[in-house]
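can u do me a favor
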């Protein structure tokens, strides 16, 4: 059982008389049990009035039955001397206490709270909960739980500070103290009230670890007006920022409140906070799902297809790309807002990827649909493969964000196998290239190729050709199969890139060499796991 006791009477009487709602009064009484906050506003107001009417000599408490023990307690400290009345210094106004005949009690039930600006009043009611749930349901998301987030107007911190200073003064007169950190946070109290209602209406539990988020952004028309004095007192706390309509952000206001002295605060802001002209408004009600990750391996059969959109100086060079041919179908099925494509390395536009394919992963941002069976994923894979003869995918599956790290782990230590069609200017015989088969662990110094210098930093990178096997075709052509360290520039190893790669096939053969075709035959990354397709 949790209850208001006689020590809470001054707080209840003071705040109720200044226009504070019952739930905010509970917060200032440090009531950490959730159940009282969830009760109807009218009942709470009625009980507070009855509490104040009770004879303190006969009744010490008003019981508000709850199941949860309180998590916060008011700190009572006996002071040796009564503090001076701040009124004598002109800092805080004396607030008349309310008795059972005072009509202020009656009117306080309908006024917008001067501390929470209606957050713990109107926006805890069934009508608002239904409005939020209607928005969620119309957005057509799949979810099995939810996390609720709320953004509050910055001046609520200012108003709470003003109410706390007032209460602290009154408590001091009684030899008691109230620490600011003991007050129940507004967001916490709001979630205690709203979570069970949303959960019941949506039919799923609230879960702090859920990937599905329901968020409400509250705003108030007088935010700038009420916070302006802080900008004068603490100008360093308020800096214009991109994408921010106002300098009075929540963090900036909190920072300023930490810096400003109490006496300066009281000179510029009313204590108690004045009755608001307007209630808060729910500016936005939004839903979002955490990203879903899909992985697989792709084969690329075209020599005229880039891995990612090929755009130079704002102009698109080719009509499609590997990532688009895959991701457009994933986007449609998962009903996502956008995607991010990544892979284990990349091939040039004119290079094919054969063998078991190249591992890739797609992050689908804010998907509406998130549940797919293995059979549905297999069907999605088939849809992708039927849509184009330029690519094929295999082992398409849902993965976790952390699993994607396997694709990038030790990337430079991985090996890749290539097949290159090589041309030489001087005639060659089979015996001229046979020695290449005997070269093992050939070390290269590769200066950043000219063709990628516009997007890669200038550096000399050491790479290794593990093995080579040559296949003679005619006097000017042979096929070369190479197993190399990942990250090796194969084209430059063949033609030398004007001496920027040393050694190279041209220098080894003592003649000019060039590459006519290149295929990636294997990428030795054992991820994602192979499926029985």
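np, heres the sequence
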């Amino acid at each position: 059982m949790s209850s208001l006791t006689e020590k809470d009477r001054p707080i209840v009487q003071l705040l109720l008389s200044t226009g504070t709602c019952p739930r905010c009064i509970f917060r200032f009484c440090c009531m950490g049990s959730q159940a009282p906050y969830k009760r109807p506003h009218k009942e709470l107001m009625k009980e507070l009035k009855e509490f104040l009417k009770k004879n303190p000599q006969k009744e010490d408490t008003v019981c508000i039955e709850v199941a949860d023990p309180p998590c916060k307690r008011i700190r009572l400290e006996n002071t040796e001397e009564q503090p001076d009345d701040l009124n004598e210094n002109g800092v805080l106004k004396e607030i008349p206490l309310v008795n059972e005949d005072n009509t202020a009690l009656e009117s306080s039930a309908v006024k917008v709270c001067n501390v929470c600006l209606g957050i713990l009043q109107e926006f805890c009611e069934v009508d608002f909960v239904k409005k939020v749930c209607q928005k969620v349901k119309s957005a057509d998301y799949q979810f099995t739980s939810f996390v609720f987030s709320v953004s509050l107007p910055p001046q609520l911190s200012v108003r709470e500070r003003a109410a706390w200073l007032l209460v602290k003064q009154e408590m001091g007169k009684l030899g008691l103290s109230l620490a600011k950190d003991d007050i129940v946070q507004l967001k916490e109290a709001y979630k205690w009230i709203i979570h069970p209602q949303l959960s019941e209406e949506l039919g799923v539990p609230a879960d702090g670890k859920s990937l599905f988020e329901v968020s409400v952004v509250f705003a108030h028309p007088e935010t700038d007006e009420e916070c302006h004095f802080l900008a004068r007192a603490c100008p360093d706390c308020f800096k214009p920022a991109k994408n921010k309509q106002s300098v009075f952000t929540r963090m900036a206001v909190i920072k300023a409140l930490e810096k400003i002295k109490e006496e300066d605060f009281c000179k510029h802001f009313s204590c108690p906070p004045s009755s608001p002209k307007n209630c808060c408004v729910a500016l936005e009600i939004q839903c979002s799902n955490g990203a879903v990750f899909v992985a697989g391996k792709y084969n690329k059969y075209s020599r005229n297809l880039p891995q990612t959109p090929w755009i130079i100086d704002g102009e698109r060079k080719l009509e499609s790309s590997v990532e688009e041919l895959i991701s457009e179908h994933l986007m449609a099925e998962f009903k996502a807002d956008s995607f991010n494509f990544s892979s284990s390395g990349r091939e040039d536009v004119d290079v094919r990827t054969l063998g078991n394919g190249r591992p890739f992963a797609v992050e689908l941002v804010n998907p509406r649909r998130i549940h797919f069976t293995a059979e549905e994923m297999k069907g999605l894979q088939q849809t992708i493969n039927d849509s184009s003869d330029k690519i094929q995918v295999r082992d398409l599956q849902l993965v976790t964000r952390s699993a994607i790290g396997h694709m990038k782990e030790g990337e430079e230590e991985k090996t890749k196998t290539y097949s290159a069609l090589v041309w030489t200017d001087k005639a060659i015989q089979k015996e001229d290239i046979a020695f290449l088969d005997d070269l093992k662990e050939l070390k290269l110094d590769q200066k950043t190729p000219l063709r990628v210098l516009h997007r890669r930093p200038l550096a000399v990178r050491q790479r290794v050709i593990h093995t080579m096997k040559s296949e003679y075709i005619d006097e000017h052509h042979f096929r070369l199969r190479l197993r190399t360290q990942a990250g090796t520039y194969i084209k430059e190893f063949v033609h030398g890139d004007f001496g920027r790669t040393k050694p190279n096939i041209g220098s080894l053969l003592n003649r000019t060499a060039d590459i006519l075709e290149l295929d990636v035959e294997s990428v030795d990354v054992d991820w994602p796991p192979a499926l029985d397709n």
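The two ends are 60 Å apart (CA to CA). hope that helps!!
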